[in-house]
Amino acid sequence: NAGVTQTPKFQVLKTGQSMTLQCAQDMNHEYMSWYRQDPGMGLRLIHYSVGAGITDQGEVPNGYNVSRSTTEDFPLRLLSAAPSQTSVYFCASRASGTLTGELFFGEGSRLTVL
Amino acid sequence: DQQVKQNSPSLSVQEGRISILNCDYTNSMFDYFLWYKKYPAEGPTFLISISSIKDKNEDGRFTVFLNKSAKHLSLHIVPSQPGDSAVYFCAAPGDSGGGADGLTFGKGTHLIIQP
Fold it and tell me: Rounded to whole angstroms, what are the CA distances from B87 to A1, A39, B11, B44?
């Protein structure tokens, strides 16, 4: 089983460039989310979606856009990258219906903004 | 304001001994807690959870204890094995910032098992 797949695994950007981090899951999960992990900060929620066509902001949404056109895909867009967005990004999904359902994470995408 | 706190950034334990990882929370509305384990260059994976209606949950070598009055939970690993060396995150579902629906994570504890 593929589970949650993220691409690319590594990316280097210059300040001001744009890019999209891709996330796909094959578990038919309604809920998908993006987290970023920074040293000493744990994992912080950026955006999430409870189903196709529905997205909402998390704790640290500024500088990021998301869309959810299908159940499987949840891309994260950086419109104008800044050095503060250097981080490791994780996409995660879970089955719908309960907050207690465990999250399944992708392997992460390491982004460096110069 | 950090709602889930892991105050020990790292912990070193000898192989075969007990590892105890601690987590404190401030939000009394949290009623479910999860522990995730993360190896370098991999995503976090679910380890064990506990509901607030229980004070203990055990799964093999892993046991989580919950003390609601103290708003404290702990993860016990016994006996500790080299493969347990990883970063452990405590998490709770609920308000992840501005009413967001997600998990609120602690900052993590890096467990190092010494041979």
Answer: 25, 12, 10, 9
C-beta atoms of A42 and B108 within 8 A? yes
The answer to whether the beta carbons of residues A67 and A55 sit under 8 Å apart is: yes
Please report which helix (H) or strand (E) contains residue A14, including its range: none
Q: Please, which residues have CB within 8 angstroms of residue B99's CB and are 6 or more apart in sequence?
A: none
Q: What pLDDT digit, counting tens, does each position of B53-94 carry?
A: 999 999 999 999 999 999 999 999 999 999 999 999 999 987
Backbone CA torsion sign across A32, A99, A95, B67: positive
- B82 in contact with chain A, both atoms CB, cutoff 8 A: no
Going by C-alpha positions, the residue among B84, B92, B78 that lies closest to residue B23 is B92
Mean of per-residue pLDDT scores for chain A:
93
CA of A61: which chain B residue's CA is closest?
Answer: B97
Coil, strand, or helix at residue A101? coil
* Location of structure tokens 């009055």: B69
Q: What is the 3-state secondary structure (H, E, C) of A27-85?
A: CCCCEEEEEEEECCCEEEEEEEEEECCEEEECCCCCCEEECCCCCCECCEEECCCCHHH
Q: How far is Cα A35 from Cα A111, in angstroms, rounded to an integer?
A: 13
B43 vs A: CB within 8 A: yes
From chain A, pick out residues whose CB is under 8 angstroms from the CB of B27: none
Cα–Cα dist A64/A77, whole Å: 6
